[in-house]
Hints:
Layout: H1 3-13, H2 19-60, E1 64-68, H3 77-84, E2 90-105, E3 108-117, H4 119-125, E4 132-135, H5 143-150, H6 157-169, H7 174-182, E5 186-190, H8 191-197, E6 204-215, E7 218-232, H9 237-242, E8 243-247, H10 248-255, E9 263-268, H11 274-285, E10 289-293, H12 294-297, H13 299-337, H14 339-347, H15 352-388, H16 395-398, H17 409-435, H18 439-443
Parallel strand pairs: 3-8, 5-7
Antiparallel strand pairs: 1-9, 1-10, 2-3, 2-6, 2-9, 4-7, 5-8, 6-7
Amino acid sequence: MRFELFIASRYLRAKRRQAFIGIITGISIAGVAAGVASLVVAMAITNGFRQDLQQRLLGSTSHISLQRIADDGIKDWPPLMERLSKQPHVGAAAPAIFEQVLISRGPRARGAVLKGMMPRYERKVGDLLNSVKEGSATPLEDESAAEAAAKPESKPAEKSDRSTQDATQSSDSLEAVQQRVASMPPIVLGKDMADNLGAKVGDPVLVTSPQGELTPFGMVPKYNRFRIVGIFSSGFYDYDSSWAFVRLSDAQKLFGLGDLISVIEFKVDDIYQAAPIARQLEDAAGKGFMATNWEEQNKALFHALKLERLVTFITIGLIVFVAALNILISLIMMVMEKTKDIAVLMSMGTRRAQVRNLFIAQGVLIGVIGTTIGLVLGYAIAYAGGQYHVLSLSPEVYSIDYVPFAPRWIDGVWVALFAVLISFVATLYPSWSAARILPAEALRYE
């Protein structure tokens, strides 16, 4: 053990005449430990919420989206999708149409993103259809089966003719209305949107496209009536309040697109390599196409999470700063108490640099001890919180019923370096003051 470290450890262990300095030293260690533990726990909670958000986000949307730069739709998309789905690292592909519409029921109306898709492909790139809580997304699966289910059962010719005649005579009867609703194409709404519209499974809604079509009377909006067959709840307010799903063919009819689609969605095997894979798909698709990945699409959200993480680190890091002030006060009082001892050491040949290093070592020791205790305590709390879900939340508000903890070792490294650095900075002035003591002046009146 070096000379300076040996003396510094003796000063920490020795019984002092002034117990007040020992109390301040203990408070300094406790402050550093509390600050480090708080930072570790806060970083674990922030990272836990980020991971939970990212998992649910990636479960709700595709990893990569390919579309035309001119936004004129993708023609002959089946062979293109088949070819791109065989590219390296691509797990699945799905066609889709995204358009802004107005969904209304009676006097209530909401703007929405209408997604036309094919469920057998959609389920491979996203999980929103699997989050249907009311009703079912099954009517979206097979258009022919849905139309067959909507038609009344066949009867003998004479009975059919009589039923047709009766239905004609009473077109406003309850049976006729139910048949018209059952023949409407199916739609799946988000939970918040359904609540705002006051709609439930089985109710009809009017979907209006703002694009419209040109008539002798001018531009007239296109519209169609849909029947709600399911209500999904993803946990994301943006999706639950403004998204709706219909069959791809129904969306093409509503918007008059023919056999065009607006985007091909992809799921990849490594989400953190989505950017280079997107460039690869862009090149494979040819000129006129552009690809965006999940990080680009949610850039603002993840930037806000990073900013929140930084603010949390700075705010809770003030606890370590306060502990560093205690280290500063403790060392200043130590220098005042040990002035005679310092003078004796310097008269016996101890260099000024050694005296300075002695008090630096003492302050850093306080920081290291406090940091070690804080790391052990912080990771123990984070592990217990993540393992036993000790902190509960309201799932109606947070879409999760407990506080997620996800501690990372790299966070502990940064927190430890920050705490030790602050402790080191707090020793600079006291150690400089101790090295300036003149032995003759200090021992003159002893």
